[in-house]
């Protein structure tokens, strides 16, 4: 009996994971409002009642999808990689390069779901998730921006402005449909690494300009 129970639990975890992966992939492609529970079950290859059985409903399933976002954007593993660099500029370059390289990786659906939520009208799900879970990982990432800008307080409005500006450049590329990207920005298809390098360079130029402005403000006693 114990062996059978263990097998059932194992199968259950596989089913839950398959549903989360399917829901996340579809939400990244279409937006969650355009995804039905049946669509998720069909992609996951499970019974249509599985969403209610394993999660209690469609909204609860999406909460499980959203829970993957913080670690995808800035996991502890990624933070550890970044602190290995000699300076903050190199760490930030690595961060943006890491995410731009994942644009075509279907497993990176959590950050594309996040991109959809923050660039459009946020769903009640993401608002509830933000209130419940908070933005601990995002705050840890913003500390790198504060350090680069030479500001002590990561909650300084200037840090937030620089963070939003820099992240928006990456979000655009995450949201562009692959088919359209090949037509409008063929560099992604022909020379993806060079394209990523140029995008990161542009992002860092913007951050460097803001840092220079802040240094000038400090010198003038503002």
TrEMBL record:
Domain HTH tetR-type: 13-73
Pfam families, A to Z: TetR_N
Residue range(s) of DNA binding per entry: 36-55
InterPro entries recorded: Homeodomain-like_sf, HTH-type_TetR-like_transc_reg, HTH_TetR
Keyword Oxidoreductase: no
UniProt-recorded Gene Ontology molecular function terms: DNA-binding transcription factor activity; transcription cis-regulatory region binding
Protein name: TetR/AcrR family transcriptional regulator
Organism: Candidatus Aphodousia faecigallinarum
């Amino acid at each position: 009996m114990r062996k059978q129970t263990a097998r059932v639990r194992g199968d259950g975890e596989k089913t839950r994971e398959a549903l989360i992966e399917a829901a996340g992939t579809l939400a990244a492609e279409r937006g969650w409002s355009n995804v039905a529970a049946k669509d998720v079950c069909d992609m996951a290859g499970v019974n249509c009642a599985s969403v209610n059985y394993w999660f209690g409903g469609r909204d609860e399933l999406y909460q499980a999808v959203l829970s993957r976002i913080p670690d995808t954007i800035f996991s502890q593993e990624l933070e550890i990689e970044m602190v290995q660099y000699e300076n903050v500029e190199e760490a930030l370059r690595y961060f943006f390069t890491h995410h731009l390289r994942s644009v075509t990786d279907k497993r990176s659906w959590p950050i594309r779901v996040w991109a959809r939520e923050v660039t459009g009208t946020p769903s009640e799900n993401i608002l509830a998730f933000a209130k419940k879970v908070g933005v601990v990982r995002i705050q840890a990432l913003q500390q790198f921006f504060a350090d680069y800008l030479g500001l002590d307080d990561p909650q300084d409005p200037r840090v937030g402005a620089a963070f939003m500006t820099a992240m928006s450049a990456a979000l655009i590329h995450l949201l562009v449909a692959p088919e359209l990207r090949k037509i409008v920005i063929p560099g992604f298809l022909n020379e993806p690494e060079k394209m990523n390098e140029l995008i990161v360079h542009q992002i860092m130029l913007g951050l460097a300009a803001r840092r220079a402005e802040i240094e000038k403000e400090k010198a003038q006693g503002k």
